[in-house]
Amino acid sequence: MDCVSQFKVDVPDCGQFATKVGAGKESSELEDAVRDFLLYPNPAKEHVTIRYDFSGSNATIEVYDISGRNISKNTLTSSNGEIQLDTSTYAAGMYMVVVRQNGVCVAQKKLVIE
Predict the structure, then answer these.
(1) Of residues 57, 73, 86, the one with CA closest to residue 12
(2) Measured at the alpha carbon of residue 78, what is the angle toward residues 41 and 57, in degrees to the nearest 5?
(3) CA 76, 104, 70, 18 torsion: positive or negative?
(4) Residue 40 neighbours by CB under 8 Å, 6+ apart
(5) Dihedral of CA 100/91/68/11: which sign?
(6) Max CA separation in the chain (angstroms)
(7) Domain covering 10-113 in this structure, CATH number
(8) What confidence tier does 54 reach under pLDDT thresholds 50, 70, 90?
(9) Roughly how many angstroms between the first and final C-alpha of the chain, as a whole number?
């Protein structure tokens, strides 16, 4: 038997989970800004690797818990690469990983911590 759960996470200036990608720009412009954004392993335990490739600069990767509280923020020094995030202190559950460029949410993905 499959079990499906639906939930909403309010991420500041990003709208609700997977409904809005940003304000003030067309969706296609925002999609063009993100060429690659992967989380692995997902589900994760001790760490997660975030691979990214964006056009432009001035980007951050933020992690929000299910209540919408920001628990991590990483400023990116280049427009492409990988970072490893230590998740060993995160409680088991679901999180949102958000990419912002110049303060605008351009991508978001669900992260599961076991």
Answers:
(1) 73
(2) 110
(3) negative
(4) 48, 49, 51
(5) positive
(6) 45
(7) 2.60.40.3080
(8) confident
(9) 21
Both structure tokens of 71: 């628990």
Q: What is the pLDDT of residues 7-45, one digit of tens each?
A: 566 666 665 444 333 334 444 444 556 778 899 999 999
Reported pTM: 0.75
**Burial degree of 53 (CB within 10 A; 0-12, 13-18, 19+):** middle
Cα gap 96→69, rounded to integer Å: 10
Is the separation of the CB atoms in 103 and 110 below 8 Å?
no
How are beta strands 104-113 and 47-54 bridged, if at all? Answer: unpaired
d(CA 109, CA 95): 8
Six token digits for residue 7: 């939930």
Contact 30, 68 (CB under 8 A): no
